[in-house]
Write a structure and sequence with these properties.
Helices cover 41% and strands 16% of the residues. With 250 residues, it is of the alpha/beta class. It has a single domain, classed as Metal-dependent hydrolases (TIM Barrel), CATH 3.20.20.140. It has an eight-stranded parallel sheet, with helices on both faces. Helix 5 packs parallel to helix 6. The protein starts with 7 loop residues before the first strand and ends with a helix. The structure holds zinc ion.
Length: 250
Amino acid sequence: MNSLGLPSLDCHAHISPDVTRPQLDTIGHAHVFAVTRSLSEAEKVAARLDHRLTWGIGVHPGVATARASYDPDTFRQLLPRFALVGEVGLDRRGGRGEQEQILSDVLAACADRPVFISIHSTGRTGEVIDLVKRRPHPGVILHWFLGTPDELVQAIAAGMYFSVNNAMSEERLQALPRDRVLTETDFPARQVRARAPGETQPIESRLARVWRMPEELVRYQLWTNLKRLALASGAIDALSDSVADTLLAI
Ligand SMILES: [Zn+2]
């Protein structure tokens, strides 16, 4: 299988809801999961059709205003317009009770919905895994996972995937099963140093070394992983035709 034609895959990046077409043209040959931080941002992007992007509906756990303005009914009304839920999760900043309530509600609303869910877990990884285990979903992607070896074992057993970036250590990358790995930039996160969303080549090169695999096969592996997750979660039916066609062609 020749995978050279596949776009790079960025499963977690932050792009302004007001981004213009000319700005998006600079992204190049990539597909980007563009997460939002609040329901008001999600509302702005709900009607956008950008062929390089899959927009997400999110409530960033570390953003107090996003938490304060979260509304379960608005989330449920908007959800059918999205193939991706993100960024949601728990964060060490902010009250744990409020964050857990929102994440539980989001997971409850996502039950049986054909979506990917990009989950943030910095500082509260064990709590995230517990919540997801209570409300399992077949489309969960843990973004920038920094949990303990024991938490990793639990996340793998619960069927979760992992989007990894170039700020993560070799040891972390090594510990993840290769059929559960996706790539991300978390653009504009400074530690990752991606100059644009979709710039996943540096992490692909590292995965090639870790996996002892030619670089061109790494991208194929990533898309194969996404395809498996898209089929398991049903998100394949909610994705735009261009991504769904790419997935079905591999
Ligand atoms: Zn993020």
